[in-house]
Write a structure and sequence with these properties.
The structure is a homotrimer. In chain A, a hairpin with a 2-residue loop joins strand 10 and strand 11. Chain A is mostly beta strands. In chain A, 6% of the residues lie in helices and 36% in strands. The N terminus of chain A is likely disordered.
Chain lengths: 295, 295, 295
């Protein structure tokens, strides 16, 4: 499966072909984020920024292929994982995203945050989707002002004019738009809340997120579905995105995305720190997992 | 109906009598915001600010009449539209609002954000409501510090001591309190989320919002009811009110109001850009509409 | 009951033994916040800060005992009240909290916001709970950067690995971490939203919050449970925590906590100002109360 995924990432003229890394390390050797039961952490398509001699980022066009596939368990994926690949780019970059549809229904990619023309909207009324066995090419522009933690998802599968059933079955992923000077983490984790799931699983099948004491860890949290959630991480706290407030729990509902960075175990030490939705019936139904901070 | 509504807006000494404008233009000729099926955009009662020779705003008292009416389809309205008139004032202004009750039940106006004495609270325990066939006069003061996007609604219709059934049937509207220096939009749209509705309608009866490429457009979003929502607009993004975070989706629940301004089609061009609640079962039930950006 | 509670607060070397005050006054004589039907306002364990001659706060360790008890009505409490005691400390302080379990099930204290080692997590997998008839000692550190409005609650009662039934029955309270220079209120009120309750009661059994015109009043709002809420206070508005936005209504869901300070009746005068959840079915079910501003 991985070799197929690797092949799906097509090199640009300025970017050497590279495999999608199954875990996320910035500036260090690649590692693997283990899951208790093996559900994989999504591949990461890193920006691998190049700078000029004066420190400016060289903008580039990322050529990325997403293959919409059905897994044996009936779930739907981009490139075989849930979430799909995490795409990291910089303000000024562009993405040419080729969607290959191996499903038997229309499928699309709708993205949040960045610029795109109406024909890259990923919706039915703009006819920007791929038919079964077909392809569709989307173009995204990370214009200045679009830095942030965004996401992409199917927007056509399901009844009604705007499908959301593809999302429910797994067709979603994260998009990071960085800008020069953003603090870079040692690791990035993606947690998507939907129903009583993290990444379409309940405990103990939720991701086991691992870091060493003192590593800078970035949590990207995205929500889909029809239920409201509050994300809580034990033993850590952070500045709310865009405000001066320190929080350790936040509300997030369908279509929203945010992120925070923490120093693993800072002031609290190693341990298995629980992350969970704080909504009572959700946690009772297994909407929890662990952030394992190793000494 | 409109002539009745016009009559309901009583001129002040310093403000010439004016018709309620069925669409919202600032600094340009009045226009009309068309709805796919004709449900009207609420009338706009503009601040029409006057300034001194040194640029200071001349505070004024706005005399406004709202007539609580039942429409043939059973819905309840202030002045015949859902939402009721959008009221725009400036910090320093006051509003003397006369509520005329043409219903067969008590009705009130409760306002958010601005100052008012307890006898302008619009609640049952303060007896600040109009009986059937009667009137009630409310006084609001937009004291310094109250600039923002607020709203008003009935607070007495329904079972229990605090009615919310009037809101459900249409008794709500927007209040804008501006302050000197606020960027003024070319157009203002009001979208109220309740149940799976925008402005008490599902698609295709939701408002079709129209603007020309490059116009500065203000979206005021208000929520009522018993369901949670996330507002999403395709192809555009904005700074979250009061923070430095760029978003294109936000959670909003009953009683909350906010707004954002975008440049229509900026960086993305013309098109029919969807707005919708991102909650899965809501969008499946038709909680969506279009922002048509013309070339 | 109160004498028992008083005994439960053990003095530190630097803090004289003191009774928990049944109402909250800063810098003035103690008062009582009356409830319409007598449900008590939670006791307040004040920081009683001491400063050096140069104005620096002298950090201290607070020794606090919480006794988990079942009340005759079947509800569960820390020290006999719902919410449990409000704990106020300063950045730099530590808390040694002894939990005494008088229940017939395991019980714990999990805290938000501050630092603590894994063995003070209050969870089952860390075995940081008190068995029936037993005790457990937690250590919290209010490290720099943890100032804010936090809360504590049981994390082990109930089915599944992480109990939330103790919270539902009343095992929760507020934690305030102040920092030097924070504006101190004349009074602090705690309102916890859960189901259609404030502090596990519906109107008219919700707290009647009383203040004199012009007093600086702090509202701490916390949410638990499985329903979403929007807190609204009539006649007042405030700057949203951490932002520049002025609001009078906000969304809050399980596990979140925030606070705001208002000047009682500022610009609006005395009156019975309603506070309520703005979600329609919640207010219809009695999720409301009053903030009585006396002349």
């Amino acid at each position: 499966m991985l070799s197929l995924l690797c092949g799906a990432v097509v090199a640009t003229a300025t970017t050497p072909a590279r495999a999608q890394t199954p875990a996320v390390h910035h500036g260090g050797p690649p590692g693997v984020v283990h899951d208790v039961t093996g559900s994989p952490t999504p591949p990461f398509i890193p920006a691998r920024r190049e700078t000029t001699s004066s420190g400016q980022i060289i903008s580039k066009t990322h050529h990325i292929t997403l293959v919409a596939q059905r897994r044996p368990d009936g779930s739907l994926t981009y490139n075989g994982t849930i979430p799909g690949p995490t795409i990291e780019i910089y303000e000024g970059d562009e993405v040419e995203l080729t969607l290959v549809n191996q499903l038997d229904v229309d499928v699309s990619v709708h993205v949040h945050g960045v610029h795109y023309k109406a024909d890259s909207d990923g919706t039915r009324h703009t006819r920007s989707f791929a038919p079964p066995g077909g392809k569709y090419v989307y173009r995204w522009i990370a214009a200045p002002g679009t830095a942030g933690y965004w996401h992409y998802h199917d927007h056509v599968i399901g009844p009604g004019m705007d499908g959301v059933r593809g999302i429910e079955q797994g067709l979603y992923g994260a998009l990071i738009v960085r800008k020069l000077g953003d603090p870079l983490p040692d690791k990035t984790f993606i947690l998507v809340m939907q129903k009583v799931w993290f990444n379409n699983n309940v405990y103990p099948h939720t991701p086991l997120l691992e870091a060493k004491l003192g590593e800078r860890v970035e949590f990207i949290v995205i929500t889909h579905g029809a239920r409201f959630h509050t994300f809580h991480l034990h033993g850590h706290r952070w500045r709310e995105h865009g405000t001066t407030r320190i929080i350790d729990t936040f509300t997030q509902n369908a279509g929203e995305s945010t992120a925070f960075q923490v120093t693993a175990g800072e002031g609290v030490g190693p341990g298995d720190w629980m992350y969970h939705c704080h909504v009572h019936d959700h946690i009772e139904d297994g909407m929890l997992g662990f952030f394992r901070v190793r000494p």
